[in-house]
Each structure stands twice: as structure tokens, then as C-alpha cells.
Amino acid sequence: ASMDFPVPVEALDRMRVPKSFNPRSPQSRRDLASALRTKAGHIVPDRHRKGRAPAADDREIARLRTELRAHPCHGCDEREDHARWAERYHRLQRDTRQLEKRIEGRTNTIARTFDRIVALLTELDYLRGNEVTANGRRLARLYGELDLLASECLREGVWEGLNPAELAACVSALVYEARQADDAVAPKLPSGPAKVAMGEMVRIWGRLDGLEEDFKINQTEGVGQREPDL
């Protein structure tokens, strides 16, 4: 307690605790105590207090007590209750500042991500300033993780000429996500126009992925186009 140590403790000597010491073992504790007595048996501590003289301390304490009693709050009957409420107020104020900083940081992150997406859509001619282009209006009607990839495939006519079964096979890659290990054997793709279209889809995705990297759009932030699962 502070009453037992009114001044900082001064180290008189040093002793290394063995690595094999087990604080839960009574024998280890007895051995350590015996080693400590042997190590420090010859040391005679200086009991003279260093620092301020007792008289000076007494005068300082008396002055502080006088100021404390002269404070307007000292005579308040509800002083202790008010002190607890003040402590609670300052604690809540500190917590509020911390929450505001966290919210501000997240808000700035959302704003930066939004600006990057706008820049990417402008680069791809989905936006022109504050105007939404025809491509942008088509994109607005698409919903899904790979909506931008689907829009680019429509723009480039990747799926034109496919029969219903082939179109379904290609579009399924935009919504399907396999639950398998990364090193699993790749499935065999259908031959014919569907295989060619899927190759074009992967090519377009690679271009979009490169653009997203250029504009610092990260999939870990909940945006970006994952690779189609073929």
C-alpha cells in the first residue's frame, strides 16, 4: 500500500530467479526464500528517508488540507454522490469520444470506397459526371455479386447466339459458388459455344479485376467482382 511505501522503493541488490522455479510448488518457494536470505543476509538497509524533510511535508499537507476545506464543494452534504456522478460523466465523455472516432473512421472508409467505385464506373462509361448512361441504367437493373461482369458480357454480346441450355450454363457461373478446396480438380466444361462464351467471361473478369486493383477496390470491403465459378 502507499502508506507502507511513501517513497519509491530502492533496489539494494539483484537475484536471478531460476527458470525451473515453480510458484505453485511449496518446495520451490522455500528454496527461493532460502536463497534470498542467503543473498541479502549481509545487506543493512539505510532507513534514513530521502527527499523532503518531514517538516516540509507537514507544511505541504497542511496547506493542501486548508485549500480542500476552503473549496466550495467541501461543505456540500451530497459531495460524495456528486463526485461519483462527475466520475461517471467523465468516463462516459471519454467513451463517447472513442466511439465518435471509430464512427468517423468507418464513415471515411465508406466515403473513400464510394468515390473509388464512382471512378471505376466513370472509366467504364456507366457514369458521366452526375449523369447515368444507358449502360449505367442497364447495370442498375442487375442484382448480384457479379452484376458488373454480367453487364459487361451483355455489352460485348458474349452470350449472343447461345441456345437456352448454353445460356443457362454460362449464367450459372455468375451465381454459383462451389464449396470445395482450392486444389480440387477443375470440372469439365461443356464444349461448343458455351465453352467459348465462358472463356470470354473469364477474360472480361480479368480485365475488371485489374481495373478494380488500379482503383484500389478491395473485395474484403464487400465490393468487387469475384472470379466466376466455372
Structure description:
Strands 1-2 form a two-stranded antiparallel ribbon. The longest helix has about 45 residues, at about 80-125. The chain is built from seven helices and two strands, in the order αααββαααα. The chain is mainly alpha-helical. It comes from Streptomyces sp. SID7499.
Provide keyphrases for this structure.
single chain, 230 residues, mainly alpha, two-stranded antiparallel ribbon, 2 strands, 2% strand, elongated
Uncertain spans: none
pLDDT averaged residue by residue: 84
Structural class: mainly alpha
Radius of gyration from the alpha-carbon trace, in angstroms: 37 Å
State the strand order across the main sheet.
1-2
Topology diagram in text:
Layout: H1 26-40, H2 54-70, H3 79-123, E1 127-128, E2 131-132, H4 134-140, H5 147-156, H6 164-175, H7 193-214
Antiparallel strand pairs: 1-2
Question: Would you kindly provide a brief summary of this structure?
Answer:
The chain has 230 residues and is an all-alpha fold.
